[in-house]
Task: structure prediction
Amino acid sequence: MKKLSVILVIAFLIPAGLFAGEDSEKEAIIKVIQKSYIDGLQNKGPVADIEAGFHPGFELLGINHNSLTKWPIYSWIQYHETKLKEDPSPVTEEEKVTAKFPIVDVTGNAAMVKLEYYKGGQMVFTDYLALYKFEEGWKIVNKIYYKHEEKEN
Result:
């Protein structure tokens, strides 16, 4: 009977420990995306925060007139720096980007995140971000997106 009790306790604790590890990975991923992508790129954050969360080989992929477009992270950072020089003032509440993370899926050192991107309370984009975990932590390596139609008030 004692053996059975020990086996049952182990059977319940091992999966709980596995899920706890996965939850901490999900939290780490959300933190990287929030700091580097949302607060960094979208809300005029420091370039160092952006560079910390994106892999140098990152590419944003899009579709334009039925052709695949690619925008590397270094081009996006240059664009960000230009915007900061033109207007260094903080982002207003109407301009501020916020995000929800309906899906954060982790398998080993790979992750896929579905992110809902809001501006002025309206969902503007649905992003799909791919991340890998490197020795220094999670890095965003790719993004595809869908732009929602603007709703009239």
